[in-house]
Amino acid sequence: MLRLILKKLGLLIPTFIGVTLTSFFFIRLLPGDPILLLAGERGVSPERYNELMIQFGYNDPIWQQYLTYLGNLFQGDLGASIVTKQPVLQEFMTLFPATVELGVCAMLFAVIVGLPAGIIAAVKRGKTLDHTVMTTALAGYSMPIFWWGLLLIILFSGMLGWTPVSGRISFMYWIEPVTGFMLIDTLLSDEPGAFGSAVSHLILPTIVLGTIPLAVIARQTRSAMLEVLDEDYVRTARAKGLSNFRVIGIHALRNALIPVITIIGLQIGVLFAGAILTESIFSWPGVGKWMVDSIFRRDYPVVQGGLLMIAVIVMIVNLIVDLMYGLINPKIRHTE
Amino acid sequence: MALLEIENLTVEFDTVDGRFRALDGVSYSIDAGEVLAVVGESGSGKSVAMLAVMGLLANNGHLWADKLEFEGYDLLTMSAKQRRDIIGKDISMIFQEPIASLNPCFTVGAQIDETLKEHTEMSRGERKARAIELLDSVGMPDSAKALKKYPHQMSGGQCQRVMIAMAIACKPKLLIADEPTTALDVTIQKQILDLLLDLQHESGMGLIMITHDMAVVAETADRVVVQYKGKKMEEADVLSLFESPQNSYTKALLSALPENATGDRLPTVSDFHLGDGGAA
Amino acid sequence: MADVTQNSAPDTRFELIVNFWRHFRTNRGAVAGLIFFIALVIIALGAWFIAPHSPIEQYRDALLLPPAWQEGGDWSYVLGTDAVGRDLLSRLIYGSQYSLFIGVVVVSVALVVGVCLGLVAGTFGGWIDTFIMRIMDIILAFPSLLLALVLVAILGPSLLNAMIAIAVVQQPYYVRLTRASVMSEMSREYVMAARVSGVRTLRLMFVTVLPNCMAPLIVQAALSFSTAILDAAALGFLGMGAQPPTPEWGTMLAESREFILRAPWVVTFPGLAILTTVLAINLIGDGLRDALDPKLKRS
C-alpha cells in the first residue's frame, strides 16, 4: 500500500512541474508588457519601470526567473494582488472556506439524491420509473447551470420570496470568521437566527452546483448497479434467503460503489468549474467568483496564483480518490 | 410425503423475440435422504426448475405448475417473506462458478456469518465457532485463518468448499448442487463430489445434482431425470438407466460417453436423429 | 437478437450502417433527439427566411414586451422583446447558427488535433508518448472552464478565442481515447500482418488502425459537441465569449440578467434553447454509444 502511494506521488511530479510552468508562463504570455500590466492603468515612470524590472527579475534569463518563481512558491509566496495589495495566498485562504462549504454541501446533495435515484432506476430497470429518473438525469447533465441558477432565483426568490438572492448571510448579522465555514461560525456565535440565515443562503447555490454531479452520479450508479445485479454473487445472496434490502443495499451496492466513488472523486474538477458560474450568479464570496472578478480587473497575479492553487488542490483530491479506490476494493488492497 | 414435489412445471421467459419456453410441463420429486441427478445438455432447462423452486428466476420469467411443494408447503402461493425463511435454511443451493458466486467485497467469514445470522438465533461468538466448525467439515485447511480471507485470495476448489459450508450452515433438508464441479480442475472435481456425498450421507438430507456429465451421475445418483429442450425425457433409477435406457435421447447421451465409443470417432448427440421431444 | 447481428460480421460498409441504424432506431430518446437536432439545423440554415425580424434591430416602441400569450404581448413579437426592443424569437433563431457553428468548429479542431496526437503517441510509444500524455495530464489538471477562461483572458474575449480555448481544453479526451484504442489495436493480428507485408507507418496509422478506433471517437464527438455548446454559452454568460450584440444564447442570458425579476421571459427562453439543444445532442450521444458498442448496451 505504501509503495502504491509513493508510486502515485511520483507520477504526480511531472504534472506538478507542468502546472507550475503553466502558471509561470501565464503572465508572460499575456499580450503587452508585464510591468505595465502589473502597474495597472495608472502607468509608471521610466525610473520606477527599471526598478520594477529588476525587482521582479524580468532581466534575468527565463529559466532563472522560473527557478525564482518556484523558490517563492515553496515559501508560500504567490505574489500580491494589484488591486488589494494583499498576498495572493492570504486572499485565497480567506475565500477558500466559502467555496469548500458550498462544494461540500453540493456534493452531499448530489450523493444523497443521486445515489438512491440510480439504485432505484437500476432495480426498476425498463419500467416507467427508470425512464423518468434517467431522462431527468440526462436533462440535469445537459443543464446550463448559470441559467438554472437564474431560473431558481426567479421562482424561489422572485415569485415565492422564500430564499435570498445573493451572498452567504443576511446583512443583519456580523459573524466573526473563526473557521471560515459560515454554517459552523453561525453556530458558534450567539446571534439568534444567524444559522437559519446562512442555511437559507446556501440552499439555491447548493442545488445549482450539485445538479450536474447529481446527474452524473445517478447515471453511473445505475449502470454500475445493473452490471452488479447480474453477478453470480447477487444470486447467491438471494439464495441465502436475505431480504431484498440486504441483497441490493449491501451485497450489490457495496460492489457498485467502487466505480461510483471514483466518479464522485472526478467531480471535484467539475465542481470547481461549476463554482465559477454558481458563485458569480449568487455573489458567493468564494474562490470562483474571485477568479472571474480578477480576470475582469486584470489582476493577473491573483489569476496566476489562483490557477495554480486550484490545480494543485484538484491534483491532491484526485490522488486521495485514487488511493481510496484501493482502500474500498479488496482486490487491490489485498494484493501483495 | 416427498420432500420436494414438482408437477407439470412450465417456465417461460420474455425475450426480444417474444416468449421463450425454457421448461415444458416437467414433473419429478425427491425424498429425504435421496440423491437425484438431473441430466441434460446446456439449454435443456435443468437448472431452471431449481431456480424456480428457490424463487430466483429473473424478472422476465413466468411460471405455472400444478404443484410445487416443499414438505407439503405450497411454494406457489407462499409470500416472498415466507419463502425467504425457507430458502438458505431448509433448501440451499450451490452454483457452477464458485469464485464468482462469492461476494468479492466481503470476507469468507462474513458471508458464512450472514447466513447464520439470518436463519438462527445464535450469538456472535456461537456463529463464529459454528463457521469454523463448518469450514472444518468441508475440509478447509486452517479454518480460523480462512475466515478472514477474501474470495480472490482462494482457489476455485476452496471457494466451492466455502459455498458448500454456507449451504449446509443451517442443516438444510434439501441441497441443490447446480453443476458444482464443472468449473473446477479434474483433480478437485472428485474431492468436491466425495465431500457432497459424505455430507449427504451424514445428515440424511436430500441432494439434487444438476449436471451434464454422465460420469458424475453414475458416481453419485440414486435416481436420474433426463431432460432435453425443456422436457423430461426419462426418469429411472441409476442402474436401470445405464443398463436399459428407454428413451432415444438417453441412448444417444450414453453412446456419447467415451467408454461406450466403438468406432474411431466419438459419436455426439446430434448424430442420433431426434424428433423434437423424442419422448418414449 | 443482438447476438445474431454481432456474430455475423457485416462485410460491406452499407450493411454496417444498416446494422447501426437498426440498433439506433430502437432507442426512442435518441430518435427524438435526432429529429430535434435536424429541425435545429434546418432552422439555423434557413434563419434568414424563418426569423420574423432582424436579430439586432431595436424596436424602440416595444421594449421588454412579454410573450404574445401573456397580457400586453404582441403577436408580431411571439416570444416578446428584450430591454432594447429586439425580437427574442428572431435572436434565438439566429443564435442557433452560433451554437451549431461553435459545436462543429470545436469538435473538428479538437478531434483532428486530438486524433493525430493520440495516433502518434499510440503508434510510436516511448518518450514521444510520455511527453504527449504528460502534457494532456497537465491540461486535465485544471478545471476545464477555468482553463478556458484563462486562455480567453490571454487571447482576448471573442467568440473565436472562446472556441479555440474550448477546443484546447477538450482535445485531451480525444488523445487518450485514440491512444488507448490504437494500443489495443496494435497488438491484433491484422496489424501484425500489415506490418509484416511492409505497410508504411503513416499508412498503417491512418488507413489500417484508425478506422477501427472510430466507435468510441464518434461517441466522444457527440458528447463534446454538447459540452462545447454549454462551455461557449458559459463563457458568453461570463462576458468572455461572443460579445454583444451577437445573438449567442449565453451572451443573451448575460445581457438579460438584470431583468430576471422584471421580465423573466428574456432569461427563460435563451436558457431553454441551450438546455433543449444540449439535451437533444446528449440523447443522440447515448443512442450512438448503445448502437456502436453493444458491450455498453446494458448501461
UniProtKB/TrEMBL annotation, chain A:
Membrane topology of the entry: Multi-pass membrane protein
InterPro entries: BPD_transp_1_N, MetI-like, MetI-like_sf
Major subcellular location class: membrane
Subcellular localization(s) per the UniProt record: Cell membrane
Domain of life of the source: Bacteria
Membrane-spanning intervals of the chain: 9-30, 100-123, 144-162, 198-218, 256-282, 302-328
Occurrences of domain ABC transmembrane type-1 (ranges): 96-325
Record's keyword annotation contains Transmembrane helix: yes
Keywords: Cell membrane, Membrane, Transmembrane, Transmembrane helix, Transport
Recorded family membership: Belongs to the binding-protein-dependent transport system permease family.
Protein name: Peptide ABC transporter permease
Species of the source: Pseudovibrio japonicus
Automatic annotation (TrEMBL), chain B:
Domain of life: Bacteria
Main location: membrane
Location of the protein in the cell: Cell inner membrane
Membrane topology (UniProt): Peripheral membrane protein
Gene3D superfamilies xrefs: P-loop containing nucleotide triphosphate hydrolases
SUPFAM superfamilies for the chain: P-loop containing nucleoside triphosphate hydrolases
CDD domains membership: ABC_NikE_OppD_transporters
InterPro entries: AAA+_ATPase, ABC_Ni/Peptide_Import, ABC_transporter-like_ATP-bd, ABC_transporter-like_CS, P-loop_NTPase
ABC transporter domain ranges (all copies): 4-254
This protein's UniProt keywords: ATP-binding, Cell membrane, Membrane, Nucleotide-binding, Transport
GO molecular function: ATP binding
Family of the protein in this entry: Belongs to the ABC transporter superfamily.
Protein name listed in UniProt: ABC transporter ATP-binding protein
Organism of origin: Pseudovibrio japonicus
Automatic annotation (TrEMBL), chain C:
Alphabetical UniProt keywords: Cell membrane, Membrane, Peptide transport, Protein transport, Transmembrane, Transmembrane helix, Transport
Key word Protein transport present: yes
Membrane topology, record value: Multi-pass membrane protein
UniProt-listed CDD domains: TM_PBP2 (cd06261)
Compartments in which it is found: Cell membrane
Transmembrane segments: 30-51, 100-128, 140-169, 217-238, 259-284
Every ABC transmembrane type-1 domain range: 96-285
Nuclease is among the record's keywords: no
Gene3D superfamilies per record: MetI-like (1.10.3720.10)
Family under the similarity heading: Belongs to the binding-protein-dependent transport system permease family.
Protein name: Peptide ABC transporter permease
Lineage, highest ranks first: Bacteria, Pseudomonadati, Pseudomonadota, Alphaproteobacteria, Hyphomicrobiales
